[in-house]
Amino acid sequence: MSKIKIGTRGSKLAMWQAEEVRRKLSEVHPELETELVVIHTKGDKILDTALSKIGDKGLFTRELEQALLDSEIDIAVHSLKDMPTELPEGLMLGGVLERGEVRDAFISRDGRRLSELTANDKVATSSLRRKAQLLALFPHLTVVDIRGNVDTRIQKMQDGHCDGIVVAGAGMERLGLSNLITEYLDPQTVLPAVSQGAIAIEMREDDEDIYELVDLINHFATWQAIVAERAFLRTMEGGCQIPLACYTSVVEGRFRMDAMVASLDGTKLIKDSFECNPEEASEEAIMLAQRMLENGAEEILNIIRGNE
Ligand SMILES: NCc1[nH]cc(CCC(=O)O)c1CC(=O)O
């Protein structure tokens, strides 16, 4: 293997993440030649519709996956949280980089914290998960939709579209914008998206040379966590259209998952958690999802699906 083509979306955040994979690869294989191939996805093109209304799994990934299947690229770099749990036939997750910041961040126009906002203030997010959890915490808030890349959202806020936005802390840090963050949200109160902060490498299943290479930069503890998180998501059958979240952590060798499912307006919110040895995390995650489905999550999901 002497040259590798790395597929990525063209946003600043996607490019940063692809460059990070490139840096990691050159650490383990200094002679390797790398080329970034920018591919536009449907999610980059439709910018005026709420994500929850497009309701399309793979909005930010499908064109990259087609390029992989067509051998136009050798690996695709994604934000793992944008990847559906079922990958196209012939493709697999090759590895993940060490997870970055997992928490959501709140940014306000005037420096007030979330708890200081009033009923006159508008908070913007495109995520049903964030909306439901914000409303559960602060029912008086008005939550409005927003689309676009992270810097576009900040600009829209500064232009008066809203008084604050909630975005992934990882995105802000990667774009060098951490200084704008008003506060990080406690991850056990506002749970992050499944796999938030993780950068994933997708590849062809039969590409052994690439697998050997990618495996060298796979971060095992992150891998263990995201496999469990995606097992939870798969069992819950959630896509981005459902307010669903989980936060995983390892404390003194014990793996812990906190999970939540909520109604769209945040009035019903189910939380549950488990702790186990890291090797048992996926099995426990599936049982957690089943337990939550029995304890009311199924009912919430049925109502949401019925409204679609
Ligand atoms: N849904 C868009 C998206 N996909 C990945 C990130 C940030 C990086 C990450 O969370 O891994 C973001 C922006 C955001 O949610 O604010």
TrEMBL record:
<dbReference type="GO" id="GO:0005737">
    <property type="term" value="C:cytoplasm"/>
</dbReference>
<dbReference type="InterPro" id="IPR022419">
    <property type="entry name" value="Porphobilin_deaminase_cofac_BS"/>
</dbReference>
<feature type="domain" description="Porphobilinogen deaminase C-terminal">
    <location>
        <begin position="223"/>
        <end position="293"/>
    </location>
</feature>
<dbReference type="InterPro" id="IPR036803">
    <property type="entry name" value="Porphobilinogen_deaminase_C_sf"/>
</dbReference>
<dbReference type="GO" id="GO:0004418">
    <property type="term" value="F:hydroxymethylbilane synthase activity"/>
</dbReference>
<dbReference type="Pfam" id="PF01379">
    <property type="entry name" value="Porphobil_deam"/>
</dbReference>
<dbReference type="GO" id="GO:0006782">
    <property type="term" value="P:protoporphyrinogen IX biosynthetic process"/>
</dbReference>
<feature type="modified residue" description="S-(dipyrrolylmethanemethyl)cysteine">
    <location>
        <position position="240"/>
    </location>
</feature>
<dbReference type="Pfam" id="PF03900">
    <property type="entry name" value="Porphobil_deamC"/>
</dbReference>
<keyword id="KW-0808">Transferase</keyword>
<dbReference type="InterPro" id="IPR022418">
    <property type="entry name" value="Porphobilinogen_deaminase_C"/>
</dbReference>
<comment type="pathway">
    <text>Porphyrin-containing compound metabolism; protoporphyrin-IX biosynthesis; coproporphyrinogen-III from 5-aminolevulinate: step 2/4.</text>
</comment>
<keyword id="KW-0627">Porphyrin biosynthesis</keyword>
<comment type="function">
    <text>Tetrapolymerization of the monopyrrole PBG into the hydroxymethylbilane pre-uroporphyrinogen in several discrete steps.</text>
</comment>
<comment type="similarity">
    <text>Belongs to the HMBS family.</text>
</comment>
<comment type="subunit">
    <text>Monomer.</text>
</comment>
<protein>
    <recommendedName>
        <fullName>Porphobilinogen deaminase</fullName>
        <ecNumber>2.5.1.61</ecNumber>
    </recommendedName>
</protein>
<feature type="domain" description="Porphobilinogen deaminase N-terminal">
    <location>
        <begin position="4"/>
        <end position="211"/>
    </location>
</feature>
<dbReference type="InterPro" id="IPR022417">
    <property type="entry name" value="Porphobilin_deaminase_N"/>
</dbReference>
<dbReference type="InterPro" id="IPR000860">
    <property type="entry name" value="HemC"/>
</dbReference>
